[in-house]
Specification:
mainly alpha, about 80% helix
Length: about 200
Amino acid sequence: MLHWIDLFGVFVFALSGALAADRRGMDLFGFIVIALLPAIGGGTVRDIVLDIPVFWVEDPTYLWLILSAALLTFAAAHWIVRVERWLVWADAIGLSVFCVAGAAKALAFTDSATVAVALGIVTAVLGGIVRDVVCNEIPLVLQRDIYATAAFVGALTYVVVVNYGMPVTIALWAGAGVCFVVRAAAIVWNLSLPRRGRA
């Protein structure tokens, strides 16, 4: 089940990248490249840090899925933009899945709660940061929007639940659920972290 949800998260993040490419007026190659960044960027860095085989190298299905998302957006960008406001919810699901998937993988290979939380955040948000930088935009996580904070809370919840001896499956759903609730609250009520005022 987690694998299929992970694939869904990759597809949604690939759509977000392709939409960013559309906003910048890129060509088809640009759509594909920018779609790749948020979809596999964080997970790639996570696996390199853990010194394990990179997930999309072991399973090229991820690459075909990203290519499909890029081509779909290139062909039907005008229609997708109409439902883009709904993609923010799909993106929230992707964020929730990625933060716990990253934390779970890191905890399994390092047995370190701190590293697990850190790599859970990296898995969820790093690709989006790279996408925004390449598209010459201020990364979402560096603005007031509650995004990386939701990933942090979700990854931390996973680690805490596992450390209390609960089954991994329950920990995954608990962490993803907490992350989604925090992100959803930020979306619905326009919540944000405080920002230092300028003199």
